[in-house]
Please model this.
Amino acid sequence: MDKNLKKYFPIFVLPTLLAFFIAFVIPFIMGVYLSFCDFTTVTNAKWVGIDNYIKAFTNKEFLNALWFTIRFAVVAVISVNVFGFLLALLLTRGIRGTNVFRTVFFMPNLIGGIVLGYIWQSMINGVLAKYQVTMLMDAKYGFWGLVILMNWQLIGYIMIIYIAGLQNISPDLMEAAKIDGATSWQALIKIKIPMVMPSITICLFLTIANSFKMFDQNLALTAGGPSNKTTMMALDIYNTFYGKVGFEGVGQAKAVVFFVIVAIIGISQVVLSRKKEVES
Amino acid sequence: MKKQKAADTGILCLLIVLVIAFITPIFFVLMNSFKGKLYISENPFSFPRGELFAGITNYTEGIRKTGFFQAFGYSAFITVFSVFAIVLFTSMTAWYITRVKNKLSSVLYYTFVFSMIVPFQMIMFTMSKLADTLKLNNPLGMVVLYLGFGAGLSVFMFCGFVKSIPLDIEEAAMIDGCTPIQTYFQIVFPILKPTAITVAILNAMWVWNDYLLPYLVIGVSTKYKTIPVVVQYLMGSYGAKDYGSLMALLVLSIIPIIIFYLFCQKYIIEGVVAGAVKG
Model:
């Protein structure tokens, strides 16, 4: 079977592989190389060593964006997971109409980032107008605007994953706890939460990765304003590439740093969930 | 028992309040889309009654300014063909690299997995330059780029499923004289269908909503703009912002998504959960 199939490489693999080289492999290798170069178009690259990286790490806007992203991620990850888990608890009690609620809570997740950003920009500016301010007057409005937007978008998604986890707990276990006289609080702390630990790991990493990679929502909601105080990492990289000529190399170096951060998050998720699988 | 019932009624009320809070932003946009554009910032929370009511002028204006229906057409074209190409080609690739065990297959597999953790910003500059050089700055070229950049997750998900299919079925087909192509399309692909639906939904959501890739590759000066690109184009350009047109465009962009959601709800929710758990 192996030998017979092997000849069919051009039909089965080549189309995907060609597209994969054009859209990923070549741009990735070029990207790593160009992060050590000075260039404006790809063809006039000149090797400058780690110069771009030094410029990136001494660039105030980049450090601000990094710090803003971390603060945003902490608040967003905690709030999305807490609210998502609470909703999942409410929706696994067998109340009538559970499906309708589930449908509504999940819906914002399907709307794209640009559209989401403008929906909330007009909403928040509408509310703030009562106090004679706009979102671009103070960075704190943009920060909390992004947190609210992120919650609206992701709570339903996270909730669905927690619901799947909660429904996997065997009813016998809950029954046994009840017979032993456990209160519902004890059942939650001692049984439900430990049993959904795998879902918690998935949701935590999902929200962390989403927070770090956020771009569309950031662009549409505040576009980084006021004066780049609400710019997140992805948007800062974009601005470095396309905002001013001559900084393409620095932009590419920032992109590599960004990639390394996102990769560390992704790899630690794999390592952590592998370890759990071995233990259980 | 009575206590339980009272608690349930309380929770039901709480959920209803939450649902209202959840749909408020959409209702807000819908309401304002029928208001005269000057009133949107003045009276954002009042109903479009009396002099505030503007009929469908925001819609006609928004559609005229952005060529919304054309953008809808290009979005639909790119999404449908990209999803079709991704499902077809990546499932074939996944089957091949799972069944043919050699060095090349495992190198390919790990490269695909690796590509899943690379954020788009890492390659956006070089990819758009390469796409320009190769003349991929058109809807068909976008399909190639989506196939390439989406291959990682899709190949990974198909591989996971192919591994669980027993070899006997395929071997029996081959002994009966099927070529690999016949075996694949008549035996393997029908078994892969559940994963194919998941992969199709995840990629459809991504491609339909994607902004940066079409913006960088196709740009705003051609006629091939997609929906997210025209929405950003309307608001991102300098000059007076037309919030009336924006509200109408937001409503028009949400409607197809809600219709799609209502029809394929079960598959979408299952697909997204499966994608999250495996990815």
